[in-house]
Automatic annotation (TrEMBL):
Binding sites annotated in the UniProt record for NADP(+): R46, D86, V87, K149
PANTHER family per record: GLUCOSE-6-PHOSPHATE 1-DEHYDROGENASE (PTHR23429:SF0), GLUCOSE-6-PHOSPHATE 1-DEHYDROGENASE G6PD (PTHR23429)
Pfam entry (one): G6PD_N
Record organism: Niallia oryzisoli
Signal peptide feature range: none
Gene: zwf
Similarity comment: Belongs to the glucose-6-phosphate dehydrogenase family.
E.C. code: 1.1.1.49
Protein name: Glucose-6-phosphate 1-dehydrogenase
Function description: Catalyzes the oxidation of glucose 6-phosphate to 6-phosphogluconolactone.
């Protein structure tokens, strides 16, 4: 195993992401021996904390990730330091630089630095500019910027942000996180497609009827009303996670499995995606917002009654859409996507529906054969299921659906730290394949902007689905118009 050494600065070190995901993920890397002894972390945040207090926080946050009786937690936490910071003040960056230089030396990090921005996006640009101007990016080794979503709010703001961070970092030093790309089964899409002789020859418009990608959540907006009001499901989930999964499903086989080739194939998919704008939006996209209902046996309020949410809010908590990819492989095959909060179950699944066979020799009166499906279970179960038809013993001339399943055992994938663990390790090793390139970000925004612009102009009839349901009925109509239906997600 490669054991990269680096000094990691985490901006937003007292925040939720750092505590819930980043510290436990770093700990797991440490525990598995994937992190060399030559690493140090500087936690950066506004609050006043001593190194000791910070180390206590770190220990608390990794406790549940520790599998070996916690024996090495103290040693792990001893690599952590804290700097109380003002993101707009050069003097504060000066102190941070001195601290970094000292730790570079002490931990022999080869001058490698990772800057992880795990905080409110309004400061991303400011921080990047200061890192450059105040000399923190003058390093002997590598320098990398890891940046969390949202990467802008639309194409225009994403461009501005990108220009700002590009003054301090080159494109190949920027690691834009999409945590779906850290999920085991999202990474597996490529393997299922390109390591099997039986799928790729059928992976096109001659044999595939449609592809359905669903990511449903049971949680509501929780404490994130302020952010979510300005985002909505389209920006929060579709622009990034959903389109990334579509790109992986639709891309051509890359000539090599390296960062550049894979990303460039994904970019081509996004370029081929048919623009949906103005009046067309209503034909191809459905938006929804949850009303009150029952969630896990409890009565829950509607979105408009959530904390920090406008009682008249027009923000969508559900999106379903039909995407068309206008290239040779996919012409005519709809990719349906669907995502929503406060739905029936927490589940992310991809269903590839194959076309019906040319002639059904097995039907009895009205009965039709079930189509073949390849289901990729992203979470909470991880695995694949192939739906076939076979004859049950003794049942002459009768085809019955059967399923071949493979389940990746273990982890409950509900946003587990594992995704972050993989992404952090990738970043430390300099592998940017599972991070989004600027071209992908830009193309996704321009696709999504057309839709949000249209939605902004018109008042929606919200709420239009009950909490704990499968979303608004218009979402079913979207497929019914094409003679199809959503395959059940649970
Ligand atoms: C995040 C969104 O990117 O993804 C959240 O901001 C959403 O609103 C989350 O809940 C879903 O991630 P996961 O891994 O639980 O499917």
């Amino acid at each position: 195993n490669e054991k990269p050494s680096a000094l990691i600065m985490i901006f937003g070190a007292t925040g939720d992401l750092a505590n819930r995901k980043l510290f436990p993920s770093l700990y797991r890397l440490f525990e598995k021996g994937n992190l060399s002894e030559n690493f140090a972390v500087i936690g950066v945040a506004r609050r006043e904390l001593s190194n000791e207090q910070f180390q206590e926080n770190v220990k608390k946050s990794v406790q549940s990730a520790a599998s070996n009786g916690n024996s090495n937690i103290d040693e792990f936490a001893s690599h952590f330091y804290y700097h109380s910071h003002d993101v707009t003040d050069s003097v504060s960056y000066g102190y941070l630089r001195e601290m970094a230089v000292r730790l570079d030396e002490q931990y022999q990090t080869n001058g490698n630095r990772i800057f992880y921005l795990a905080m409110a996006p309004e400061f991303f640009g400011t921080i990047a500019t200061h890192l450059n101007e105040d000399g923190l990016t003058d390093v002997k080794g590598f320098k990398r910027l890891v940046i969390e979503k949202p990467f802008g709010h639309d194409l225009q703001s994403a461009k501005e942000l990108n220009n700002q961070i590009r003054t301090a970092f080159s494109e190949d030093e920027i690691y834009r996180i999409d945590h779906y790309l850290g999920k085991e089964m999202v990474r597996n899409i490529e393997v299922i497609r390109f390591a099997n002789a039986i799928f790729e020859p059928l992976w096109n418009n001659r044999y595939i009827s449609n592809i359905q990608v669903t990511s449903s959540e049971t949680l509501g907006v929780e404490e994130r009303g302020r952010y979510y009001e300005n985002s909505g499901a389209l920006r929060d989930m579709v622009q990034n996670h959903m389109l990334q999964m579509v790109a992986l499903l639709a891309m051509e086989p890359p000539i090599k499995l390296n960062t550049e080739e894979i990303r460039s194939e994904k970019v081509k998919v996004l370029r081929a995606m048919r623009t949906v704008k103005d009046d067309k939006v209503d034909k191809y996209f459905v938006r929804g917002q949850y009303g009150e209902g029952i969630n896990n046996g409890e009565k829950v309020p509607g979105y408009r009654n959530e904390h920090m949410v406008d009682p008249q809010s027009n923000t969508e908590t559900f999106v379903a859409g039909k995407l068309l990819i206008d290239n040779f492989r996919w012409a005519g095959v709809p990719f349906y996507i669907r995502t929503g909060k406060r739905m029936k179950s927490k589940s992310t699944k991809i269903v590839v529906q194959f076309k019906d066979i040319p002639m059904n020799l097995y039907y009895k009166t009205e009965q039709t054969l079930n189509p073949n499906l390849l289901v990729i279970h992203i979470q909470p179960e991880e695995g694949i299921t192939l739906h076939l038809n076979a004859q049950k013993t003794g049942n002459h001339m009768n085809a019955t659906p059967v399923k071949l399943s493979y389940a990746n055992t273990g982890i409950d994938g509900i946003n587990t730290p594992e995704a972050y663990e993989k992404l952090l390790y990738d970043c430390m090793r300099g592998d940017a394949t599972n991070f989004t390139h600027w071209d992908e970000v830009a193309l996704s925004w321009s696709f999504v902007d057309n839709i949000s612009q249209h939605w902004q102009k018109t008042q929606a009839h919200f709420p239009n689905y009950e909490s704990g349901s499968a979303g608004p009925k218009e979402s079913d109509v979207l497929l019914a118009k094409d003679g199809l239906f959503w395959w059940p997600i649970d």
